[in-house]
């Protein structure tokens, strides 16, 4: 089901179910919540005493003795001071509560996302995930920071002023009971439409964010194809769609607000007319009518505020449903195994492994894959592009779980080992190394966070990276750009190799680890890797056969399955795919 389909089915109960997800987050900050409620109690009570001050000023103050007048005014000033201080405290507590809760929500969501399997990340665009982490969570901040505050305050004020209306004039008050439900009706009817519109609007913002993230990350590709104007057009279209979607929500919201205001003011005017009649006939004093009106206006203002609150809640419900959807998606790769082997020898066993990527169910990336690797053995995977070599490494790392069959390390199924201990025992140098916007030192240390500086330097030396690192403006402390930009492809690979060397794991996976190096650097790095691979189980993927000819065994893969296994010489003698590949490569080298 697409997100748009889902959004059209967002019901009111779903909005509240999504918003209920916030309750545990709120309850973590009980102190702030209680402080806010207390301040709210004080300010609401103070607001409700203001009309009394007004009546006193009119009935006792005006025309009476100066002492009475002064007393009435002092009372009014005292109420104003209490209200001011109470409001400041209330604002402080609720704003902080909003920030803390949204901070917690963002931490919870990030922690969930960073642990999700790669199939999940294949499905979701990172720009949309970032949008949920930022824009959608932001909606919630406004809900807690202001909406909930306004909601409770308004509710207290509506009921408080209603009670006071009855105290002031039960007859007139009875009429308000007709007005209030009338004013609330449009709010209730528009609620569901608003929630749907808001969800759609957030979805469109997510789309626009995805597009921006993707194209900014691939800015070199955009510019090299001179697609700047094309991308400007696409972003403009995407943003316009987001604004058009938001406009639908805003239109509904404006209409509801106008209708509520009209109903509220008409009710007040009707009350004023009735009250004016009472005063003329001497049934009521002018001050009492003023007090009544004051309560009616305060109450009406709060009903209006409640209408806005309802709108805001629907809006945040839409955003929160996008967040809950992610939080409620379980990881396909479950960390249920609790075995934590003390030391790993590195024996690997693939049994009848089959795997399809979720979006390519028609065609298995790997099938009938059987391979037994002895501890310390060096095995190369070769074969044409798309044969499934990287997939074998992905499955061993448990980035994905096989659809069928099993993989074992030292005889234990990797699903029974904790994910952390499995991955701690494997060092992977991926096809395209991913470096972070941090110093070279920290990028290498990512392999083992407790490594000392000298260990990092030794790893860099072993990866033949020391020379170029020292030539950087600030050596090991040079900050790399996002994804390691500012280093050449070959330099990035050497940093990634240094990271793997530092990790010092018993199983080593190299996926085209030296493909971006020139022949001379490759030879130097190859030497370092030879040292590294000694006494470790290693699985090496390489297109350049010269780099794998010394492997203990070479596994030839084609279309997701093993077609031959042997040594360089035996495979050459056998003929077939390997011999063909070798002939092509060595012929090219000779010529
Ligand atoms: P290369 O030598 O080009 O890196 P490879 O032998 O490592 O290729 P794999 O990356 O394992 O090949 O891919 C095997 C098959 O699975 C290919 O057909 C590829 O299109 C598909 N594939 C790889 N990754 C994904 C993915 N994330 N989602 C869907 N299909 C994928």
UniProtKB/TrEMBL annotation:
Its main location: membrane. It is a multi-pass membrane protein. It is found in: Cell membrane. Keywords: ATP-binding, Membrane, Nucleotide-binding, Transmembrane, Transmembrane helix. It comes from the Bacteria. Gene3D superfamilies: ABC transporter type 1, transmembrane domain, P-loop containing nucleotide triphosphate hydrolases. PROSITE patterns: ABC_TM1F, ABC_TRANSPORTER_1, ABC_TRANSPORTER_2. The chain crosses the membrane at residues 33-53, 73-97, 150-167, 173-195, 254-276, 288-310. Residues 348-584 form the ABC transporter domain. SMART domains: AAA. Residues 34-315 form the ABC transmembrane type-1 domain. This is ABC transporter transmembrane domain-containing protein.
């Amino acid at each position: 089901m697409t997100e748009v389909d889902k959004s059209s089915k967002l019901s009111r109960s779903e909005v509240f179910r999504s918003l209920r997800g916030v309750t545990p987050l709120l309850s973590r900050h009980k102190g702030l919540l209680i402080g806010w409620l207390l301040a709210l109690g004080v300010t609401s009570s103070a607001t409700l005493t203001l009309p009394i001050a007004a009546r006193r000023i009119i009935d006792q103050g005006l025309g009476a003795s100066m002492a009475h007048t002064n007393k009435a005014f002092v009372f009014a000033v005292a109420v104003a001071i209490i209200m001011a201080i109470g409001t400041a405290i209330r604002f402080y507590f609720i704003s902080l509560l909003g920030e803390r809760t949204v901070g917690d929500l963002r931490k919870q969501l990030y922690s969930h996302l960073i642990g999700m399997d790669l199939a999940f990340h294949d499905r979701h665009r990172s720009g949309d995930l970032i949008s949920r982490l930022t824009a959608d969570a932001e909606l919630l901040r406004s809900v807690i920071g202001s909406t909930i505050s306004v909601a409770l305050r308004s509710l207290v004020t509506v009921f408080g002023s209603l009670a006071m209306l009855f105290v002031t004039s039960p007859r007139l008050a009875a009429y308000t009971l007709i007005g209030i439900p009338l004013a609330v009706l449009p709010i209730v009817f528009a609620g569901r439409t608003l929630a749907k519109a808001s969800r759609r609007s957030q979805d469109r913002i997510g789309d626009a964010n995805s597009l921006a993230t993707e194209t900014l990350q691939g800015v070199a590709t955009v510019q090299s194809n001179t697609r700047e104007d094309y991308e400007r057009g696409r972003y403009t279209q995407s943003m316009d769609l987001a604004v058009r979607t938001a406009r639908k929500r805003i239109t509904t919201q404006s209409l509801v607000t106008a209708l509520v205001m009209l109903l509220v003011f008409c009710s007040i005017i009707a009350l004023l007319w009735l009250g004016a009649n009472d005063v003329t006939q001497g049934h009521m004093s002018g001050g009492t009518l003023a007090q009544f009106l004051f309560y009616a206006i305060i109450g009406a203002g709060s009903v209006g505020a409640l209408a806005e609150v309802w709108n805001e809640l629907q809006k945040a419900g839409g955003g929160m449903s996008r967040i809950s959807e992610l939080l409620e998606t379980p990881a396909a790769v479950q960390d249920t195994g609790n075995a934590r082997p003390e030391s790993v020898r590195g024996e690997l066993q693939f049994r009848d492994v089959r795997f399809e990527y979720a979006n390519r169910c028609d065609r298995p990336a790997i099938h009938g894959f059987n391979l037994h690797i002895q501890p310390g053995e060096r095995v190369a995977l070769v074969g044409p592009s798309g044969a499934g070599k990287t997939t074998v490494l992905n499955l061993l790392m448990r980035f994905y779980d096989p659809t069928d069959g099993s993989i074992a390390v030292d005889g234990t199924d990797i699903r029974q080992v904790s994910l952390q201990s499995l991955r701690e025992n494997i060092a992977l140098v991926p096809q395209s190394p991913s470096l972070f916007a941090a110093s070279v030192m920290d990028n290498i240390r990512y392999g083992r966070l407790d490594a000392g500086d000298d260990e990092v330097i030794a790893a860099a030396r072993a990866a033949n990276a020391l020379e170029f690192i020292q030539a950087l403006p600030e050596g090991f402390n040079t900050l790399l750009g996002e994804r390691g930009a500012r280093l050449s492809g070959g330099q990035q690979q050497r940093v990634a190799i240094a990271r793997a060397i530092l990790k010092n794991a018993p199983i080593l996976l190299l996926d085209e680890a030296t493909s971006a190096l020139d022949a001379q650097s490759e030879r130097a790095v190859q030497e370092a890797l030879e040292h590294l691979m000694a006494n470790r189980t290693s699985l090496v993927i390489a297109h350049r056969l010269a780099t794998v000819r010394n492997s203990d065994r070479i596994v030839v893969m084609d279309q997701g399955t093993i077609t031959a296994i042997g040594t360089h010489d035996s495979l050459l003698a056998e003929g077939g795919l390997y011999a063909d590949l070798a002939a092509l490569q060595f012929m090219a080298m000779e010529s």
